[in-house]
Structures are given as structure tokens and as C-alpha cells.
Design goal:
CATH topology: Beta-carbonic Anhydrase, Chain A
Organism: Prevotella melaninogenica
Order of helices and strands: HEHEHEHHHHEE
Protein name: Carbonic anhydrase
CATH class: Alpha Beta
Radius of gyration: 18 Å
Cofactor: Zn(2+)
InterPro entries: Carbonic_anhydrase, Carbonic_anhydrase_sf
CATH architecture: 3-Layer(aba) Sandwich
GO molecular function, one term: zinc ion binding
Low-confidence stretches: none
Distance between the termini: 42 Å
Mean pLDDT: 96
Number of strands: 5
Oligomer: single chain
Helix content: 25-40%
Number of domains: 1
Length: 179
């Protein structure tokens, strides 16, 4: 699959397919979005929000959540705020999210099936609580609230940054505010 992508990329560049996408690195709408990496949202999310290339910084991560106040998602938001001028943040979860049903025990079982040893799992557990790390959320709305709160209460996020939470219907694109 990767070789096919590389082949396509050569043709794309040769045909100057990139031309319509040229923009600056600064988001035109001064907006950052944290959303799920679900493939159903790849084109649906920006289209449902009326976003064009260059309008917003979109940070995609499993479940659209921030696991800890100092993880890479939060770091990306801080970069978006301080280096890229974002003034508003949208936290967008979606209907039918797989992270909603993630179970650490099942996840560990799948890892063992793929050859991950108990020794490797024990080594990982020295770095992180795998039950918390691999478990999903069980209430989408509560997860949106928790993620919004993490950003709003973060000591390095300025108080003038607007942070709001939403759930997008992964079939229709309808956006529902979570207040």
C-alpha cells in the first residue's frame, strides 16, 4: 500500500496537484480543533464545518481526548495558541467512536496475540498505567466535558482562549454543542 501511495505522490507532484492547497502555516480562522482520527471524519469534519485548507489546525488523536495535561495533544494545542496564533479551540468527539468501547484487557489480549511479550508489557507498565492508558471512555458527552476542562484549566493556556466542546454525527456531520 505504501508503495502505491509513493507512486501516486510522484504523479501528484509532477502534475502540480498541490497548487490549490498552497497556504501559509498560520490558520486563517485562528482556530484549533482536537478531534478523533476516525476515517469517517477525514473529509466529513472539515466539510461539515465549512473549513478550507489553511483555515484551522486540526489535531487528530484516538477518541479526540487529552489523556494527561502534558501529553503531545496538549503540547500541540500550546503550539497552536502561542506559535500559530489560535484564539479558539474546538474539542470534537463523534457518534459511534471506537474509543468509547476500548477495554484495556481486550487491548492487551490483542497485543499478546500479535507477539507482544509479558516482559514488554511489564516494561511499559513501568512508564504508564496501562489500564488507564488503554481503556477508552464510556460516555461521549462526559469525555467532551473532561477534555474541555483539561484545556480551560491548564496553567499554560491563557484565560482569553475560547474552548468549546461538540459531538459530530459521524454519518450526517451534524454538530451538537456540549455545554
Amino acid at each position: 500500500m505504501i508503495d502505491q501511495i509513493l507512486s501516486y505522490n510522484k504523479r501528484f507532484v509532477a502534475a502540480k496537484g498541490y497548487a490549490p492547497f498552497i497556504t501559509s502555516s498560520q490558520p486563517d480562522m485562528k482556530l484549533a480543533i482536537v478531534s478523533c482520527m476516525d476515517t469517517r471524519l477525514t473529509k466529513l469534519l472539515p466539510n461539515a464545518l465549512g473549513l478550507r485548507n489553511g483555515d484551522a489546525k486540526i489535531i487528530k488523536v484516538a477518541g479526540g481526548t487529552i489523556l494527561t495535561p502534558y501529553d503531545s495533544v496538549m503540547r500541540s494545542l500550546l503550539v497552536a495558541i502561542y506559535e500559530l496564533g489560535c484564539q479558539e479551540v474546538m474539542i470534537i468527539h463523534h457518534s459511534g467512536c471506537g474509543a468509547c468501547n476500548m477495554n484495556a484487557d481486550h487491548f492487551l489480549h490483542l497485543m499478546r496475540e500479535r507477539g507482544i511479550t509479558d516482559e514488554a508489557i511489564k516494561e511499559a507498565e513501568q512508564q504508564v498505567n496501562l489500564n488507564e492508558y488503554l481503556d477508552g471512555f464510556h460516555d461521549t458527552e462526559a469525555s467532551v466535558h473532561r477534555t474541555v476542562r483539561t484545556v480551560q484549566q491548564h496553567p499554560l493556556v491563557p484565560k482569553d482562549i475560547i474552548v468549546r466542546g461538540f459531538i459530530i454525527d459521524s454519518r450526517t456531520g451534524e454538530l451538537t454543542p456540549v455545554d
